[in-house]
Amino acid sequence: MFNFLYNTPIQQHKKTIKLINIFFYKLEKYSDKELKQQTSKIKSYVQNNKFKVDDIIPEALATIKEAIKREIGIVLFDVQLLGAIILHEKNIAEMKTGEGKTLVAMLPAYLNALINKSVHIVTVNDYLAERDALLAKRIFNYIGITVGLITQYTKYSDRKQEYLSDITYVTNSELGFDYLRDNMCIHKNEIVQRGFDYAIIDEVDSILIDEARTPLIISGKSEISNSLYKKAKKITDLLISQKHYKIDEKSKNIILTEKGILFCESNLNIKNLYNINSPWIKYILNALKAKELFIKNKDYILKNNKITIVDEFTGRVMEGRRWSDGLHQAIEAKENIKIESENKTLASITYQNLFLLYKKLCGMTGTAKTEENEFLKIYRLRVIEIPTNKVCIRKNLPDLVYKLEYNKWQAIAKECFDMYQIGRPTLIGTTSIEKSELLAKILDTLSVPYNLLNAKPENIIREAEIITQAGKKYSITISTNMAGRGTDIILGGNPNKIAQITITTYIKNKLSILNKNKRINKSYSDITQSILNKIDINFFKLNINIKNIEKEIDSIINSNYDRKNIEKEKISIIYEQLVKKYKISCDQEKKEILSLGGLYVIGTERHESRRIDNQLRGRCARQGDKGTSRFFLSLQDNLFRIFGGNTIESLMKKLNINDNIPIESIILSKSLNSAQRKVESYFYDIRKKLFEYDEVINNQREAIYTERKKILESTFTRDCIIEYGEYTIYEMLKIYEKENNIKKQQVLEQILQLLNISKHFKKDRLISMKLNEMKKFLYEQFRISYDLKESYLEELRPGLVRQMEKYYLLQQIDKGWQEHIEKMSLLKEYIGWRSYGQQDPIVEYKNEAFNLFINMVTYIRQTVTYLIMRSRLIINT
Ligand code: ADP
């Protein structure tokens, strides 16, 4: 109410937070039953229009705060309440790692579910969606709110129900694919989503910025020959860098030189490589990109003889994703593995546009401030920093810059060795799988034990476990940037996780004795052993699938409400006992680690954006703990090399010092920062461009999907057919008007044929009419003809005509749209190759895209009219 008096968000909302806490103290005294009634009580306030949504904030948030306390014994901090309000007000809440964002998201989710809006909490991967949904189910069960979960493993038949829950946890990719699939349905009841009201995006920067560049694609097979890829590869193997082509590392692009073009043309025996009707240029450029810019074990890995993309920002493998426009096939050709047939895009959307569908959007992350401009301009989201609960005391030490990369890695390994000697846990972030393995090798030679976390499948399955261990004494963890994101590193170890892992390993161990006579060597202390001995292995042997043992144990431990089984109850008790036991040793260990300075985070290369560097730094010093971060760099790092410019190059020459000694110079730091800013704005520009281009097809997609939906939901599609038919007549008459007399005859003939009414009357009569008159007449004839057809069909089989209409309409819209997106993607490529002098290519793109769209619409209407007028019914007797 008095917002204008205050400026910082915490002050602005002080009063609300106070009110929440007042309600919270009141609710503490409620019985469980009374607490549950809160939901319907608050709902009725809004339904009766007694209150506006904002008026119920204090009581609603207090209710969920109390539910959280009752279920998991955690009392939310005021900064978490603040974060919740900021999310409710459609902003991005920047909250540091370990501040408890998982719980924060539940507050605005509850609030908005109370007003019967569909609420989606969107996460970056299945693991997080599942983990958070499981916790949410326990908490919301207290207050009668249903929680749904959608991951890639959710069956199609269950999805609708999950989306119908009050709050649904869903991964960003499933959300997108479901949206696309919903818009390809043939029957209304196949649709699974129920609208886009309110989304809370977890790790919002990862989804809206890092992933914004890769569109989601649903594709089908097409028939283009794979031999073209092989031939292109052969030719490009002969091409020499600099002579035949130049590499632009900055924009990940290849430019053919005049010599290169001539070489290809003579080799392929064609006249003009850039001829729009020749397919070759695309194949040659893709083969060159595959050769020079896409590196194995950095940009992709080979897994089961398949190219699997590694996300350049997170270092995670992106299962099932393929590079588009033939690039993936070019890489398959390079690696000499089976070339999967080229896919035809059936539907696609970028995350940017997917999330703009929501009426209300917000997000949370530890790092957004550096990109606040982008969030505001593209998504209209403000970034608001939420203060940490305890003051952050992390030491960010100045960068150490070595001349050569070799010396940098030696220095990092030496630092790890030193840390290992004293037992201080250290996390080293690397930018690629290759680099992480390089460091691992050096550590091997120094006999320093470590855990390696990168996108390789054998490592990824242990991800959560490795991160759980990363905060323990003597832990040295090498991780590609941001692997393990979303999992908190707890100093001294996480007693809950350790207890869970112990139980799982114990059971697995025992079961493998019973099943395979194979034992995992593991010794437990006497106390642990005596606790574990209580587990009845036979129960697991008989009742549980060993493949899912992790999941089973996880759900037994984390779900209070369905613990009816005595054995499961026992496991929960054993778990509690172990947690208690481990907590004591973990707490002690934490104290020791704090005396060593807390977790030490080492960066090995500055990333393309400060945000990613900050994410890495943010892994340490959580919740007021001590912690240190430092970046070890070399002048040979990509950032320096590609974006450093002249300053750094001349500095390199001038500096004449020992290779082993790091350089600390103010000029160097400054040019490093400016290089990084240059990269950030460079990529921002690319994303902005992409967005501008994408906006064109997005508007078209919206128009087509709206039309499609209208038809899908309509029970009376006749109007649509009449409209399409009249439009077709109108369009053809426009052509008729422009033609000479002979051609006029032909056009008229076409119209009559199209409408299937040519038999009924003479053309001469028509030709003598004025255009307007003719139009009116043809409209009328068309209706009469259609009426006849309808009554004829109706007599044969009632209801059939409506079914047929719907079928043709949807079929032709889909076909037209699919062909259209293919043309649009070609258009974009060609626009990129042409030069426009002063003219902005986007203007050209928009114009041509518009023409293509109109052509598509005309084509759809024409074919639907044609098909429906020509359709015949064959009755099988
Ligand atoms: P983030 O996503 O912000 O990094 P998480 O949601 O993973 O953080 O939470 C980190 C840890 O802090 C979890 O173990 C969670 O249970 C715990 N936590 C969250 N809120 C509180 C609180 N108010 N008091 C104590 N522990 C909390």
From TrEMBL:
It comes from Bostrychia simpliciuscula. Its main location: membrane. HAMAP family: SecA (MF_01382). GO terms for molecular function: ATP binding; protein-exporting ATPase activity. Belongs to the SecA family. Has a central role in coupling the hydrolysis of ATP to the transfer of proteins across the thylakoid membrane. It is found in: Membrane; Plastid, Chloroplast stroma; Plastid, Chloroplast thylakoid membrane. It catalyses: ATP + H2O + cellular proteinSide 1 = ADP + phosphate + cellular proteinSide 2. It is a peripheral membrane protein. This is Protein translocase subunit SecA. Its EC number is 7.4.2.8. Residues 82-220 form the Helicase ATP-binding domain. GO terms for biological process: intracellular protein transmembrane transport; protein import; protein targeting. One of its GO terms (cellular component) is chloroplast thylakoid membrane. InterPro entries: Helicase_ATP-bd, P-loop_NTPase, SecA, SecA_CS, SecA_DEAD, SecA_motor_DEAD, SecA_preprotein_X-link_dom, SecA_SF2_C. The gene is secA. Pfam families: P-loop_SecA, SecA_DEAD, SecA_PP_bind, SecA_SW. The keyword ATP-binding applies. CDD domains: DEXDc_SecA, SF2_C_secA. ATP binds at Q80, G98, E99, G100, K101, T102, D488. Residues 1-664 form the SecA family profile domain.
